[in-house]
Amino acid sequence: MIDIVKASAGSGKTFLLAKTYISLLFKAAVDHPYRHILAVTFTNKATEEMKSRILKELDILARTPEESGYYKEFSKQFGSAAQIRKKAEDVLYDILHDYSAFSVSTIDKFFQTTLKSFAREIGQFSTYQIELDKDALVQESVDRMLDALTEDEKTLLEWLTESAMEQIEEGRKANVAESLYGIAKALKSDAHREVVEKNGIDEEKAYSKENLKAVRKVCRQCRKDFIEKVRNSAQAVLDVFSAAGVDPKETNRSFAAKLYTYAEDGLRSVDVPSPSFMTNALDPEKWFAKTKAKTLLPKVQGLLEEPFRAFVDLFGEEYKIFMTSAVLEKQVYSLGIASEFTRSFNDLMKEKNVLNIDDSNTLLRKIIDGTDTPFIYEKLGVRYTNFLLDEFQDTSTIQWDNFKPLVKESSDNGNENLIVGDVKQSIYRWRGSDWHLLDREIKGDFPSADDSKPLRANWRSLDQVVSFNNAFFTYAAGVLDAQSGEDAEVGRIYKDVAQEVRIGTPGEGMLDFTFCHTDCQLDVVLDSIRKIHDEGGAGYGQIAVLVRTNKDGATVASHLIAGGIPVISDDSLRVKSSLFVRRLASLLHYVDNPQDTVNGYLAMDLGVSCPESFQSIPDLAEELLRGLRRLNPSAMDSEVLYIQSFMDTIQEWVASNGNNLNAFLKYWDGLNPALSSPQDPDAVRIITVHKAKGLEFPYVIFPFAESVELSRPESHWCHPDLEGTVLETGVSSAYHVSLSSKSENTLFSEDFKRERRLQIIDNFNTLYVALTRAGKGMHVIAKAPGKDIRNMSDILWRYIDEQPEGEFGRGSFHDSEGNETAVSFHRGEMPDFSEKGGKASRFEDRVASYPSFPLNPENDGSDGDVRERGRLKFSADAVDFFSAEESPRLKGLLLHDILSDVVVPSDLDEAVARRVRHGDISSSDAARYKALLEERIASVASKGWFPEDRSKVVNEVTLMDVDGSIHRPDRVLVSGKSVFIIDYKFGEEHEKYKWQIARYAKLYRAMGYDDVKACLWYVYENKFLYL
Amino acid sequence: MKPFLRQVADHYYIEDTFEDKCFIFPNRRSMAFFTKYLRDNVADPAVKAYGCAQRRPMVMPLTLTINDFFYRAHGVDTEDRVTLLLELYDCYCQVNPKPETLDEFISWGEVILGDFSDVDKYMVDPEQVFTNVREYKEIQDDYSYLTPAQKQALDEFISHFRDKNGLKPNAKGDNVKSRFLMIWDMLLPLYRKFNAHLGSKNMAYDGMVYRGLVEKISSMGAAEFFKDAYPRCSKFVFVGLNALNESERTVLRRMNNAGIAEFCWDYSSQMLKDSRNRSSAYMDLNVTEFKQEWTLDPEGLKDPQINVVSVPSSVGQAKQLPGILAETIDLRTPDCTDCAIVLPDESLLMNVLNSIPEEIEDINVTMGYPMSSSGVWSLMEDISSLQLHLRKRGDQWYFYHRQVRSILSSGIFAKALDESGKEIAAKICRDAKYYIPQSDFKGNPIMELLFRPVVENPKVADVSRIHRFQDYQMEFISALAPKLLENPDSASEIEFAKRYYSCVSLLRDKALAVLPVTYVKLLGQLASGESVPFEGEPLKGLQIMGPLETRALDFRNVIVLSCNEGIFPKKNVSTSFIPPELRKGFGLPTNEFKDAVLAYSFYRLIQRAENVWLVYDSRMEKMKAGEESRYIKQLEYHFRKPLKRYLAKAEMAARNPETPLPKPADIEQRVKDMTLSVSSMQNYLKCPAMFYYSSICGLKADKEVSESMDASMLGNVYHAVMQALYLGPVAMDPGFAMDRQHIKDALADGTLVPMKEVTDGYLGRWIKDKAGIKSRIRSLIKDELHTIEVAGRDLVMEEVILQYVVKTLERDREHLRAKGVGSFKVIGLELPVSWSCDGYKFFGYIDRVDSFEDGTVRIVDYKTGKVEDKDIGISDDNAQEVADALFQVDNENRPKIALQLFLYGRYVDGKDWMKGKSMVNVIYPAASLFTTPVAEFEKPRSERFGELVLGKLKESLAELTDPKVDFRRTCSEKICGYCDFRNICGR
Fold it and tell me: A921 at the B interface (CB within 8 A)?
């Protein structure tokens, strides 16, 4: 059983999912039902929210079920309040203590866990990690590939040279690696994998040197042939002219004279003749101007038609192939590295013991494809009977392929499954999402799935917002469909856009639209925030500014910060924008290389002393920070978040890469991390539209709306159908082609059209997501529109502009010269921002600052035991192990240790063997240790120190004096009331030792032994010192 | 609240019954605390000691950890991990005809060892659990004594592979199942072989000891057995244990029945005892079977104050400590023994140690720290890599700069360097050689010890060579370690040095005949898995510990960092070959076991605490979910404890105010004393601060060893080859050094006679002799990179330069033919020129001055960068526009060449060879060399341009030398982006 629920923005999707989840728990007949339900969300954040939503709801149901929003429905299904209470309590406590089994997860996390249980079967180490930073892997493998290049690799060398020359000719800096990163990244993309799989391309064959050479050959030939044909054909026409004695310049607007350029000797490239040339050439009536036609037309009529037609015909299909050949040939160099690159990439992953996240999906598919579901569950250790999939429009084909068998098994067994999504909110196609799955394919996979109950109401926004969106998106979909022609996709996707309003009263809510120059937009944002905050009484935390890119986010953030508005921003601010962090990195560079004058200058200039040696990178960085802080404590406090981020980066890097400063700095130099944003309930949130998906804010400001374009040229993997053309090499291959309007004259024109159509939908969806975040009011700010519709905000303008007068309050702003600088539209009243119930924040603030203290504040320079000198206390045997004063051959400490383990002489073998096992001594040294001790033990046999009877000997005895002090004589022989104490010594003779055994003896006497004797045994020298 | 161990100590102390007792604890730390409490009692005259009024010294009872208790009883020590893995590999090779290499095996070997140990400790019959899928028969006598749970698990498991007809089809082919079966089928034979093998050598792994002990007790009887093993002890008190495995349970049961065991379980709090709480899982069993000897916490427990702090950073958590400590303990009289900082994420340790307020004088760390995070580890890895990348040229051995630089930047290695060592290191950094010869390290013992060739042939697998490598490593560590001893901060690193040394030493004993690279990987695999247990002995000061080290201990104040789900409790990653369901069926520990252990340790830790601080990292990025620990949720939703929640907040503040860059008072004189150039003036125009750093402070970007040629090197080599070509064949010899001084000398002593004329034939000859040009290019690249060979991407660069040079020659020949002459005159190459303007000296070199026809002199400039039309075409019409753009503040698209053209004009004015000649500026732009002929354009005869620029130049110089105007910083982010001084400038 599968329910597919299409849920527009704000329609209570999370409510539904949580409700479904909990009702599945309540319905289940088994213990621990949550162990068998998997709820899948798109992001970590959504997972976290889903989990707390479920826990909170269960908590309410477990305490005061009547207060739960689910109560009404549940009471029909699950009995009395008391019964519900009991159910909820049981399941809540079970989940809390069995939390790992609480399966709300992102798709990736679930897949990674699954894959991990097959680590051995897929040839990975048990410890392998998933590498998320694919680009870094790509970059490193390209670098390695280049570093390993030798002169023997002629073809590769030749390709790389040509590619470098190409860069130079394009006026760029020659950087061999740079151009390779691009193609390597593309080769490792989801899109590439998809095109390869879909078309059954044999990568190895397609990117083999042989095939690429063949491609280059046919392309060159094609180009040569076509140019030759054009030249000949043009010449043929011109020949007719000259034979007839007519100057081509005499033709209608001299159109035929253009042919001279086509007939030139060194013709290198061919452009399509203008449309007027084409019409003129094909119609004898149009060959000459009316005035000249009379005399000239007869001379060539009947002769020119054929050659003209032949010339024009060249610019049909054949021209497309010709243009295609140029595109393909350019690719040969870059694709030439594919096989080398793949090898290098795989080696690198193996070496680093990582798995690239995309590859892991492919691997998983191989597993899932070839194995039955029960076995997968056996390995995984859990069996899921129900699946709840959220944001289904964001699922990629491969993810769905991997999920399908599991869902199918569940569905076949008659279990409930829920799939929720909204094509209109699909904005992650660039990450591989495919909304067609939700739109159509899932119904194909599961024909009996029930999709008859979409969520129609809007629980998020007030009337003004909902009504505007209802009307606008319907209108805009029409505009877009009309503009792009034949296929009415946008309208079809948006046919269910209209929602019922469920909150507030009719007419409630506020809308503002401002159209002005880009430069003014930031000020409009600032004004808008002030107005909502000052006049509307909204807290800063209720306001969000949506942006398209993090770059825009950073611009907005700094403008607002300068305007005194507290902000938090997800991912917009860069850690490296902090001077403090840059200086710290600079000082680290200086420690790494004291010869570095630039960084050394900073250290000198600031007067920060840089240590010459250090323990670990975190230690070093903290020490330098303390130096910097002394200069300017307040400056440091204002950049705490940046410093924390930098230190986090160090900490994480060191944890997985160790303490190599030089390597860390190389890594840091190549990094541009974003500042992670704290939670702050009292700050304006700046967030990208993509990240805002799924979130809602009372008031939303959306500046730079014009940046939502219709479509733009981009490179994509295409698989041209070359069969039957001269470009066929017999090997099916994929190419990474820049799709733009130029592509219309190539075999990629279909790809281009499809891509444009999909982009329009992506971008329209982006606008939809942006305009549906607001609860109470929103302000959209965009550039004043131009003549054509180039971006989504132009449609917005048209729509508003077309509204009957009075729909919106219209305002106009002018500069000093009377030019209109901004137009604004307004509708609705200032909403009430006071939060119901006035619930206080559940948090109290703590100041985040960066206090730092040295481990050993003032090195007093004392020469005492290293273990006791610092604040940090150690019991480091190692200190003695490496002590320089020890005999180089036999270490006294070890000898002592071994001897302490010997109760009866036969213990010696094992005592020595143990040190060997622990790596304290090598087996070759062991013999010497053993020989010495054996000899010494034998030498004291007559003294009765080493009796064969274990019970007579006390080793490792610990004595405690009345002052609580502890004493440990090495060996004590007890017999009735007499005691004999032996203490082993391996170093120099020392007075203090005598004192030591005297104390031992005293202790025994105090304990009531009458006959106490003691002896110091200097074992090396085999010397005895009796007390 | 009286700590558990103190209650135990008091109880037995007052009862005066302990000399013949043996106390058994979960770990060493609890032993130490127990002893401390005993001491406190002994030393406290107020406490009545064991019945007698007179206090006297005493023999302490025997105290052991549970592990030691078992090992000593059994009399066999377990082998260390390395030995066991090597032995296991030997056995593995016998059962697997196609074994992976040793270094690849290690990670799986550990899993297998773990499985074997579990099977033994839980007393599972290996023959049953590692069932042979092929031979499994539904109804079989062998299986009749399986419990129903075992039977069911086994049937389920088998059903994946078998149906009525035997093996299922898809268990045969090459798929996941068949691969699984392949491994599975090896486990039983491997288990048998491994046990027999170790037994024969009197060796054991963990599980073997436990199983062995149980067997011994069964045959001998517990009382007698322990009488024998611990002659001094008649009673064994088990203190503070929790989860017991089947072997332990069996032993304890026997001891209990024999009346020689007593038990002190620590479980007082209601939360801990709650039957739904995992923490109670083992306690319930324990207490039911093994009676609690006496009552703990007779007065009951109070709830602690629980604080939860959310911090959007990992390190930021550590930075909350000073504040929390200040609130929790009195820093003026810090007695921190009552305070524990618990670190579930050990990688935070360094940051935590840097966050302990100075008032706290003693810090005690008890936790495992991973070897791979230590400085010693990184250094030793670099040293291995150094040896794997040796080069030999002639008699000299060379080291690759990457590893050398890494080693020299190691904070640990630096500790071992004396003055002479530091000097050598400094020189090596300065020289920036690509390969560093061994001779460069001469003169310092530790440098010589380290930088000598050991892996002379990486392609040979030979025991004695590996031994040499190991001796080298051990010698180096032995030389390094004493230096570390000199500094108290290094104490921890000495631990790592010792562990590393031991690993090498152990492997040395194994006499491995493997390739050096395999050895290095193997060592890496083994050593990186080591976690060094820090354990401070003195029981004073602030306690920093791992979660498991807190066992049996109580603190009044408990601060736990990293209270994130997935870290605390740690996420369970199942690493076992035995599938979870099968583990469960056979009672082997599963994830639930680990959950229970960790939950117990958390709830036990907080049961007697007064203040509990739980700090978590709230960041959500990458795989991090920023989710608070389940324990926090349990406290909130299940136990409904009042949690005080905090949010660590800091402003996303504006930037620091810039500090001004004032000018020195004698700025004018200083500028007059220096020579200005096109580029220094460009710098000033781009950003006066940049000029300040580069020209006034004389800073130059760090000369690191170049991995490969960058754009400027490419330009240098191209320029040099062109100069050599037109100096003549002598300069084209690859051995001829192209630095200015050498050329000057060669010209002076007549070894180099420059060509005056370049003929069509001469050009043609070189155009054909590509190999000749290439070897010149190669020698120049080697000079640029300070390397001994050209490889990698530089081969591409070499080829690119060759194409350039040849094309340039072709263009020159083309020009010659176009002019209809047979040769052209070379007037100067790299010609030094200068111009003085109001006392400011400008100086530069002109790439080439030549003449193709009488009356015209060409000033040639090779440009490898981008050249734009707007730079070049200057006329009266656009003179103002270009001049304005040239001097415009913060112009990101400054016409760069315009200033050069202007200065070239001044430079050549009045030169002898210019007399009566007209001048033509020619630029050879690399970008268009191949597509369009070289463009000649006339000297900007636009007088107007000259005047405008001169005027503005003087204004700029006046501004530059005005001491009242500070050096300004550019506002252009783009210019900042490329600036070498970006990090130090304060913009």
Answer: yes
